[in-house]
Amino acid sequence: MVRPGVMGSVLLLAACGSEPPPAPVPEAVPVTLMTVGPREGAGALEVVGTVRLKRETPLAFTSAGQVRGITVREGDRVAAGALLATLDTGPLDAAAAAAAADAARAAADLKRAQRLVAQGWVSQARVESAQAAARSSEAALSAARFNQRNGRIVAPTAGIILRRAAEPGQALAAGTPVLVLGEFASGYVVRLPLSESQMAGVRMGQAARVTLESRPAPLTGVVSEIAGRADERSGTFMVEVRLPADAALRSGMVGRATLMTGGGDGPLLLPATAVFAARAEEGFVWRDEGGVVRARRVALGPVRSEGVVVTAGLAPGDRIVRTGIDRLSEGAKVRPVPAR
């Protein structure tokens, strides 16, 4: 049996030698992290467009008349100088003959006036009038012969017939398109209609990846032309992406172009869930520093469908908290978890 005095001494000694219990270790907060910088699909703009030859030229007769014949059909490939269509030149021949007769008569009138003025029978004003009439007749003859020579359409360069807009026997006004020729030498482009907001990230020489249903591998092109104003009907800006030479390309194909707008030294894009305390074009994000988070001030740009533009405060390679920011404080420990 332990005596009461001994028991009290033991308890007193135990109380003097005990230490306070350790403070509880804060648990790491589970969050999802992301790395700032280019990633697949980051800042990418996808637009559906149409493949065209850069130059698709309407061909027409320079004078009115009836189509005599057309030697090609849509899809035909033609060489430079090939005869494509002819006009009934009967009226043109008659007009040229009449113009030649008028020019001859005016020339004879001029000679006679010059002879008479030398003899004193007419005034110098009569000669000047005859000279003007002769020049006018020569100009009319030149125009008639031009129309006569251009009663045929020849291919200005090698290409493919994209459209046949007339048929033999059809009466046409001057300048009415008969054929549309796609010029091979101009190369292929894909034309993309972009909205005003989409235009903000597009620049000349920008890389684009173009996918076609008929081609297993995408083509890599570059932005070669940006419209100076929007289309009056659709309100969109037409952007052309020049494509590399490929025998499988055809005018009219539908392609999906991905413009790489998120890489390089352009603005970074973050999901809206990563930004807190945003106001007056600035906000904060939680930056991961070896398992501990620190608040980082960032400058904010416009909000896009892909996320919030960050113009300053972060660099590619920084790791920030993507979700779970409402449970954090300065210096909090975090535990990365997979995104759901």
Automatic annotation (TrEMBL):
Q: Which GO terms describe its cellular component?
A: efflux pump complex
- UniProt cross-references to SUPFAM superfamilies, sorted A to Z: HlyD-like secretion proteins
The CusB-like beta-barrel domain, residue ranges: 194-261
What Pfam families does the database record attribute to this sequence?
Beta-barrel_RND_2, RND-MFP_C
State the species of origin: Sandaracinobacteroides saxicola
Query: Of which family is this protein a member?
Result: Belongs to the membrane fusion protein (MFP) (TC 8.A.1) family.
- Report what the protein is called: Efflux RND transporter periplasmic adaptor subunit
Where's the Multidrug resistance protein MdtA-like C-terminal permuted SH3 domain?
269-327
**Which is one GO molecular function term here?**
efflux transmembrane transporter activity
Question: InterPro entries, from UniProt?
Answer: Beta-barrel_RND_2, MdtA-like_C, RND_pump_MFP
